[in-house]
């Protein structure tokens, strides 16, 4: 198992609410990427943070936002939740100068259900 | 746009046989192509990756081949075992946006 942890494990919210998901990167890693994995599909890239700055973003609306802290842990915030936001949210940490070519190690994910 | 297609979506093999999963990518992806294995209820785990300066890479029973001209890459698992049963994802990296794009996954079932 990797040293990447995520909290909470499961979360239930209602439409319109806001949610914050957390990720602790593996020791020595300075980059965190976030993915959304809908049931039966591959992970979809949301964004990446390197040394507290966003340095890459996928096709997700601005209501998906994030932060990275000096210890390289990260948060994913989703505002105005929609039913389609129900998914497994995965974070992955990596080391190096940032980018997608560094090996990414995934956390266990947070299962978000929006009712 | 960036797109990765993965085939087949499901694959059933007899224990000991080989399994092959193929992926194609659009446009000019960068030089990094990882493969992940995801068991039910667990996190994706990297099993092998390949960079564009090589055409093939092998790690015990797993091998990956890359054809950048044809824009496709494949995963080969030999001598399959029941513990190989899982969902496998290919991915390709695009430098624009630092984006790792995943295929839709292949559910592999190894029958004893």
Written overview of the protein:
The complex is a heterodimer of chains A (115) and B (112). Chain A is an all-beta fold. Chain A has no helices and eleven strands. In chain A, strands 2, 4, 5, 6, 9, 10 and 11 form a seven-stranded mixed sheet that branches. Chain A has a four-stranded antiparallel sheet with strand order 1-3-8-7, with no helix packed on it. The relative contact order of chain A is 0.34. Chain B has strands at residues 4-7, 10-14, 19-25, 32-38, 45-51, 56-59, 62-67, 72-77, 86-94, 99-102, 106-111. Chain B is globular and about 45 Å long. With 112 residues, chain B is mainly beta. In chain B, 0% of the residues lie in helices and 58% in strands. Chain B contains no helices and eleven strands. The chains are: A mainly beta (115), B mainly beta (112). The interface between A and B is medium-sized, with 27 and 28 residues.
What's the topology here?
The complex is a heterodimer of chains A (about 120) and B (about 110).
Chain A: E1 5-7, E2 10-13, E3 19-24, E4 31-37, E5 44-50, E6 53-57, E7 64-68, E8 74-78, E9 87-94, E10 105-106, E11 110-114
Parallel strand pairs in A: 2-11
Antiparallel strand pairs in A: 1-3, 3-8, 4-5, 4-9, 5-6, 7-8, 9-10, 9-11
Chain B: E1 4-7, E2 10-14, E3 19-25, E4 32-38, E5 45-51, E6 56-59, E7 62-67, E8 72-77, E9 86-94, E10 99-102, E11 106-111
In short:
By secondary structure, chain A is mainly β. Chain A has no helices and 11 strands.
């Amino acid at each position: 198992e990797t040293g990447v942890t995520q909290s909470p494990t499961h979360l239930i919210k209602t439409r319109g609410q806001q949610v914050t998901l957390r990720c602790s990167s593996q020791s020595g890693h300075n980059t965190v990427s976030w993915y959304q994995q809908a049931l039966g599909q591959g992970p979809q890239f949301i964004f990446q943070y390197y040394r507290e700055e966003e340095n890459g973003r996928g096709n997700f609306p601005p209501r998906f936002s994030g932060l990275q802290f000096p210890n390289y842990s990260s948060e994913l915030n989703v505002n105005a939740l929609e039913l389609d936001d129900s998914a497994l949210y995965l974070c992955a940490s990596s080391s190096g100068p940032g980018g997608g070519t560094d090996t990414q190690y995934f956390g266990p994910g947070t299962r978000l259900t929006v009712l | 746009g960036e797109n990765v297609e993965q085939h087949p979506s499901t694959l059933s093999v007899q224990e000991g046989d080989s399994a092959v999963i193929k992926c194609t990518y659009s446009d000019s992806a960068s030089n990094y192509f990882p493969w992940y294995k995801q068991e039910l209820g667990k996190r994706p785990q990297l099993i092998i990756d390949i960079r564009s300066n090589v055409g093939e890479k092998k790690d015990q029973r797993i091998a990956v081949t890359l054809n950048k001209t044809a824009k496709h890459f494949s995963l080969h698992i030999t001598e399959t075992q029941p513990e190989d049963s899982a969902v496998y994802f290919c991915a390709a990296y695009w430098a624009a946006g630092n984006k790792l794009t995943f295929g839709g996954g292949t559910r592999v079932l190894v029958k004893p």
